[in-house]
Amino acid sequence: MYEKTGFELAIDYLCKNNIEFSTHVEDKVCLLLYPHDPISSRKFIVSRKNNMYFIAHDTYSTKAFDSKTSTGLFNVMNKLEVFNLKMYKKHWIDSIFRVNNAKTGNPHIDKYVTITSCLKSIPHDIFSKDAGELFLEISKRFSPVNLVIEKDHIPFVNDLKNKVVA
Q: What is the b/e burial string over 24-40, where b = at least 16 CB atoms within 10 angstroms of the residue's CB?
Protein backbone atom coordinates (compact mmCIF):
# COMPACT_ATOMS: atom_id res chain seq x y z
CA MET A 1 0.00 0.00 0.00
CA TYR A 2 1.32 3.43 -0.98
CA GLU A 3 1.74 5.95 1.83
CA LYS A 4 1.69 9.62 0.86
CA THR A 5 4.64 11.81 1.80
CA GLY A 6 4.27 14.91 3.92
CA PHE A 7 4.71 17.03 0.81
CA GLU A 8 1.91 15.20 -0.98
CA LEU A 9 -0.36 15.62 2.05
CA ALA A 10 0.41 19.36 2.20
CA ILE A 11 -0.33 19.75 -1.51
CA ASP A 12 -3.57 17.77 -1.15
CA TYR A 13 -4.66 20.05 1.71
CA LEU A 14 -3.84 23.22 -0.21
CA CYS A 15 -5.69 21.95 -3.32
CA LYS A 16 -8.72 20.76 -1.36
CA ASN A 17 -9.05 24.17 0.31
CA ASN A 18 -8.45 26.16 -2.92
CA ILE A 19 -5.32 27.80 -1.50
CA GLU A 20 -2.83 29.03 -4.11
CA PHE A 21 0.70 27.68 -3.84
CA SER A 22 3.85 27.08 -5.83
CA THR A 23 6.31 24.21 -5.70
CA HIS A 24 9.96 23.88 -6.56
CA VAL A 25 12.12 20.79 -7.00
CA GLU A 26 15.85 20.99 -7.67
CA ASP A 27 18.24 18.05 -8.06
CA LYS A 28 21.99 18.48 -8.41
CA VAL A 29 24.00 15.78 -10.14
CA CYS A 30 27.77 15.26 -10.25
CA LEU A 31 28.25 13.93 -13.78
CA LEU A 32 31.78 12.62 -13.21
CA LEU A 33 31.23 10.66 -10.01
CA TYR A 34 27.51 9.85 -9.88
CA PRO A 35 25.96 10.46 -13.33
CA HIS A 36 22.61 8.80 -12.54
CA ASP A 37 22.25 9.66 -8.87
CA PRO A 38 21.48 13.16 -7.56
CA ILE A 39 23.95 14.19 -4.86
CA SER A 40 21.58 16.75 -3.42
CA SER A 41 17.92 17.57 -3.68
CA ARG A 42 15.80 20.51 -2.55
CA LYS A 43 12.05 20.80 -2.72
CA PHE A 44 9.67 23.27 -1.20
CA ILE A 45 6.09 24.50 -1.22
CA VAL A 46 5.24 28.17 -0.78
CA SER A 47 1.77 29.52 -0.14
CA ARG A 48 1.09 33.17 0.56
CA LYS A 49 -1.91 34.91 2.05
CA ASN A 50 -1.53 38.66 2.57
CA ASN A 51 1.84 39.06 4.35
CA MET A 52 1.94 35.52 5.76
CA TYR A 53 3.87 32.72 4.04
CA PHE A 54 3.46 28.99 4.64
CA ILE A 55 6.66 27.18 3.62
CA ALA A 56 7.42 23.46 3.71
CA HIS A 57 11.07 22.82 2.85
CA ASP A 58 13.13 19.65 2.50
CA THR A 59 16.76 19.21 1.50
CA TYR A 60 18.58 15.94 1.14
CA SER A 61 22.19 15.19 0.32
CA THR A 62 22.86 11.51 -0.31
CA LYS A 63 26.63 11.70 -0.31
CA ALA A 64 26.98 13.92 2.76
CA PHE A 65 24.26 12.11 4.74
CA ASP A 66 22.62 15.45 5.45
CA SER A 67 18.92 16.15 5.53
CA LYS A 68 16.85 19.10 6.75
CA THR A 69 13.09 19.30 6.85
CA SER A 70 11.16 22.27 8.15
CA THR A 71 7.68 23.69 7.97
CA GLY A 72 6.60 27.07 9.16
CA LEU A 73 4.67 30.28 8.93
CA PHE A 74 6.72 33.36 8.12
CA ASN A 75 6.11 37.09 7.99
CA VAL A 76 8.34 39.95 6.81
CA MET A 77 9.40 42.19 9.69
CA ASN A 78 9.62 45.57 7.94
CA LYS A 79 10.54 47.65 10.99
CA LEU A 80 13.61 45.58 11.85
CA GLU A 81 16.77 46.37 9.92
CA VAL A 82 19.52 44.30 11.54
CA PHE A 83 18.30 41.87 14.12
CA ASN A 84 18.45 38.16 14.79
CA LEU A 85 16.77 35.99 17.36
CA LYS A 86 16.44 32.23 17.76
CA MET A 87 14.28 30.78 20.49
CA TYR A 88 14.25 27.17 21.67
CA LYS A 89 12.68 25.24 24.50
CA LYS A 90 15.38 25.22 27.19
CA HIS A 91 17.59 22.15 27.51
CA TRP A 92 20.17 21.64 30.24
CA ILE A 93 23.05 21.64 27.72
CA ASP A 94 22.09 25.04 26.24
CA SER A 95 24.28 26.93 28.70
CA ILE A 96 27.33 25.08 27.35
CA PHE A 97 26.77 25.08 23.58
CA ARG A 98 24.58 28.08 22.81
CA VAL A 99 26.37 31.41 22.59
CA ASN A 100 24.97 34.94 22.60
CA ASN A 101 22.23 34.08 25.09
CA ALA A 102 19.67 36.83 25.66
CA LYS A 103 17.02 37.38 28.31
CA THR A 104 13.44 38.59 28.03
CA GLY A 105 13.35 40.10 31.52
CA ASN A 106 10.50 37.74 32.43
CA PRO A 107 11.82 35.12 34.91
CA HIS A 108 9.13 32.57 33.96
CA ILE A 109 9.94 32.74 30.24
CA ASP A 110 13.71 32.85 30.82
CA LYS A 111 13.46 29.72 32.99
CA TYR A 112 11.93 27.58 30.21
CA VAL A 113 13.23 29.19 27.00
CA THR A 114 16.69 29.72 25.54
CA ILE A 115 17.08 32.74 23.30
CA THR A 116 20.16 33.52 21.25
CA SER A 117 20.46 36.96 19.74
CA CYS A 118 22.83 39.76 18.83
CA LEU A 119 21.10 41.70 21.64
CA LYS A 120 21.67 40.87 25.32
CA SER A 121 18.11 41.74 26.29
CA ILE A 122 15.10 41.57 24.00
CA PRO A 123 12.97 44.76 23.69
CA HIS A 124 9.36 44.29 24.82
CA ASP A 125 7.97 45.73 21.57
CA ILE A 126 9.66 42.87 19.67
CA PHE A 127 9.00 40.05 22.12
CA SER A 128 6.21 40.34 24.69
CA LYS A 129 5.27 38.19 27.69
CA ASP A 130 2.24 36.93 25.73
CA ALA A 131 4.49 35.85 22.84
CA GLY A 132 6.69 33.92 25.27
CA GLU A 133 3.70 32.21 26.87
CA LEU A 134 2.33 31.30 23.43
CA PHE A 135 5.70 29.82 22.45
CA LEU A 136 5.72 27.69 25.61
CA GLU A 137 2.18 26.47 24.91
CA ILE A 138 3.05 25.57 21.31
CA SER A 139 6.23 23.78 22.41
CA LYS A 140 4.11 21.53 24.67
CA ARG A 141 2.10 20.40 21.63
CA PHE A 142 4.84 20.21 18.98
CA SER A 143 8.43 19.21 19.33
CA PRO A 144 10.87 20.39 18.28
CA VAL A 145 9.72 23.93 17.64
CA ASN A 146 11.70 27.13 17.45
CA LEU A 147 11.15 30.76 16.62
CA VAL A 148 13.57 32.48 14.25
CA ILE A 149 13.79 36.18 13.39
CA GLU A 150 16.64 36.64 10.97
CA LYS A 151 17.67 38.49 7.84
CA ASP A 152 17.87 36.28 4.74
CA HIS A 153 16.68 33.23 6.69
CA ILE A 154 14.82 31.94 3.63
CA PRO A 155 16.97 32.96 0.64
CA PHE A 156 15.45 30.35 -1.69
CA VAL A 157 12.09 32.21 -1.77
CA ASN A 158 12.53 35.33 -3.92
CA ASP A 159 9.95 37.41 -2.02
CA LEU A 160 11.85 36.82 1.26
CA LYS A 161 15.42 37.15 -0.01
CA ASN A 162 17.47 39.77 1.95
CA LYS A 163 14.54 40.54 4.26
CA VAL A 164 14.12 40.08 8.00
CA VAL A 165 11.54 37.33 8.51
CA ALA A 166 9.96 35.78 11.56
A: eeeeeeeeeeeeeeeeb
Residue type, 73: L
What does the pLDDT look like over 111-164, one tens digit per residue?
888 888 877 777 766 777 888 888 888 888 887 888 888 888 888 888 888 888
**132 and 103 in contact (C-beta within 8 Å)?**
no
Separation of alpha carbons 130 and 132, rounded Å: 5
**What order do you get walking across the sheet with 101-102 strand by strand?**
101-102, 113-117, 85-89, 146-151, 164-165
Mean pLDDT value across residues 96-104: 72
Is the pTM here over 0.90, yes or no? no
Domain ranges within the chain, ordered by starting residue = 1-75, 76-166
